[in-house]
Amino acid sequence: MENVDARVLRSARDWLASGHRVMLVTVVKTWGSSPRPVGSMMALREDGPCVGSVSGGCIEDDLVHRYTSAYGDACMRQSRPELVRYGVTADEAHRFGLPCGGTLELLLEFAPALSVMDDLVQRLDAGQLVQRTVDCHSGLVRLAETSSPAAVHFDGASLSVTLGPQYRMLLIGAGALAEYVAVMALFNHFEVTVCDPRIEHHDTWSVAGAKLSTEMPDDAVRSMQPDTRSCILALSHDPKLDDLALLEALYSPAFYVGAIGSRRNAHSRKQRFSEHFDATEDALQRLHSPVGLHIGSKTPAEIAVSAMAEVLAVKNGILRHSA
């Protein structure tokens, strides 16, 4: 499943290539509670279709109404971007459905260049991590390849957003728990690979969109070439498989490494890694085990919710390492 940013940019590129006028909208600042974070984008075509989101829906409706009118047609023919703010007053916050008086500031780009947009989409398709910088006065856009994600930067004069390939998830073990985790990861725009060398587990795997690998788990981790947008979850319940993946993953740049099991099993695994494989304390501190946030989960579906919630919490900077 393609991530939202890529879908917005691809739609904008395709509309421009078809001769349409397009407005690209980016959230550059928020105050108070906000339904969408900075960097969120939408693309609006001059005749009304839009893709992406900058709010819960009401602001999108207002943008469509405003910029598909005669006034909007004139705006969308100009080259200079514009900054607009929603939710400044309590009445506006109520009108646009912004919670707790939240306020959004948006950058409207009325004339994104087809050549630059096409270059950006091609770079993303090639798996590059790209920093897109917009001059808020002239509308000039610069693209630069970067090695690591960076926070959205906006100073009133320019906007820089890091765009890149999908977050990736490698699951070890093709059991029921992995099926639930894979489904939720796909809905959260992760690219999912499931590794299980046990052929007997393949016939029952039924999650469309998740790749199935028969490699040994440590080979699967190496093949993945984990980066800071990658996570690895060992879910097979078989130490012979899970440990192979974990010993490889703990020394990778992956933002999350987790393993299923009880607290007792987690303690035994860390002790085993330390005594027999010389795992460092720093590496062991990276291991989330038992995997997931504590929600009293019992069933595979509930455990998957717990695991996915923890992955997202680490991805979003709410959690840094296991307790």
From TrEMBL:
Q: Which InterPro entries match?
A: MoCofactor_Util/Proc, XdhC_CoxI, XdhC_Rossmann_dom
Q: XdhC- CoxI domain: which residues?
A: 15-87
Gene3D superfamilies documented for this protein:
NAD(P)-binding Rossmann-like Domain
Q: Where is the XdhC Rossmann domain?
A: 169-311
Q: What is this protein's record name? A: XdhC family protein
Q: Specify the species.
A: Comamonas squillarum
Task: State the taxonomy lineage.
Answer: Bacteria, Pseudomonadati, Pseudomonadota, Betaproteobacteria, Burkholderiales
